[in-house]
Design brief:
Layout (H helix, E strand, L loop, with lengths): L1 H14 L4 H32 L18 E12 L6 E2 L8 E8 L2 E5 L6 E4 L3 E7 L1 E2 L2 E2 L5 E8 L2 E9 L5 H34 L1
Antiparallel strand pairs: 1-2, 1-3, 1-10, 3-4, 4-5, 6-9, 7-8, 9-10
């Protein structure tokens, strides 16, 4: 009776022994896999940036933009090709998520990003503002993101922002779209006046 008990105790003790070489091998393999995935992501990011090398440098804010119409503190969640919320734009730091301070003036939209590249969207380049739920891999509740569509070079870009006070985003959409409509009407009137003047001179 004593001998079977001793054998059983020995078997239980052996079961507790850890196979350290195998465990270390698995850990090293996992770390190498993670490093490979990270490297591939970095290479993909650089490759995308190279493909977007034709994107002009981002405009800087004017020295005297005028009084602020609206101000917002929140997060910048990235930019994509307009209408293609998975086609991330990374050139000139547009792919870097960050805190953001937005200021809307009659001159345009000033985007200040601590730790990332600031940029300015002239009012003439603003195309549309709307509320949406996702951009560039970031998905929130319906209407959780403020999306601003703007022109830069030969591209239309969607940039996504999230205010610390989400309720104010609707006011931003309304104000931006009113500014865009007014600027569009003003540009049309100016073009019409120029055409009439030119025709009158020709006669």
């Amino acid at each position: 009776m004593t001998q079977p008990l001793a054998v059983l105790a020995a078997e239980q003790k052996s079961a507790d022994v850890t196979d350290w070489p195998d465990r270390i091998g698995w850990i090293v393999g996992l770390l190498l896999f993670i490093a490979l995935v990270y490297w591939l992501m970095r290479q993909g990011w650089k490759w995308r940036g190279t493909l977007q090398g034709d994107l002009p440098a981002l405009p800087a804010a004017p020295s005297a933009p005028g009084p602020a119409r609206l101000e917002l503190s929140g997060r910048y969640h990235g930019s994509t090709t307009a209408g293609q919320w998975l086609d991330r734009i990374v050139a000139h730091g547009l792919g870097t998520r960050s805190r953001v301070e937005l200021t809307l003036t009659d001159a345009g939209l000033d985007v200040v990003r601590p730790g990332a590249t600031d940029f300015f969207i002239p009012v003439a380049q603003l195309r549309e503002a709307r509320l949406d739920k996702g951009i560039a891999g970031k998905v929130l509740t319906e209407g959780g993101l403020l999306i601003v569509t703007w022109g830069h070079g030969d591209r239309l870009i969607d940039s996504g922002f999230r205010s610390d006070r989400a309720a104010e985003q609707a006011e931003w959409v309304e104000t931006l779209n009113n500014m865009i409509d007014m600027n569009s009407t003003s540009s049309t009137d100016t073009t019409s006046s120029t055409t009439i003047t030119t025709e009158g001179t020709a006669r």
